[in-house]
Amino acid sequence: MGLMVINLILWFLGVFVLVLAAVAGILGIRALRKYLKTPEGPARSPLAANLGQRRLARGMAPEAVAQALGVSPQTVTAWEGGTLVPDDGQLAALAGLYGCSIAQLFQPGP
């Protein structure tokens, strides 16, 4: 009888810990999302900002850039958002598409 009670208490304790960890994880993710959406969040790199500015200056949609480079529009958006970085070949193609050097892509401003 005593062993059953101990096992039951340990089971409830395990479930409680799992629920607590899940709640903490959800709250942590919400806090991170809120942080990333605020102006105080991490700034985009000069490359990310410059890619978006140069695309807009050319009057191009992300789909057009994606088609020219053979990537998805989501990839172009991720580059401009700073969550992905183009590889060397893609940087060369972007520079050619935007009529600038690769070095200019890393400098702030168009």
Report what the structure shows.
With 110 residues, the chain is mainly alpha-helical. The protein folds into 2 domains: 1-42; 46-105, Orthogonal Bundle (434 Repressor (Amino-terminal Domain)). It has 6 helices and no strands. It has helices at 2-37, 46-57, 62-69, 73-81, 88-98, 102-105. Helix 2 packs across helix 4 and helix 3 crosses helix 4 (73-81). The longest helix is centred in the N-terminal third of the chain and has 36 residues, at 2-37. The protein is rod-shaped and about 80 Å long. The termini are far apart. The model has no long low-confidence stretch (mean pLDDT 83).
Show unreliable segments. none
DSSP strand tally? 0
Ends apart, CA distance between termini:
76 Å
| Helix vs. strand class | mainly alpha
Output the helix-strand order.
HHHHHH
Strand content: under 5%
Sheet with most strands: none
**Average pLDDT for all residues:** 83
Integer-rounded radius of gyration: 24 Å
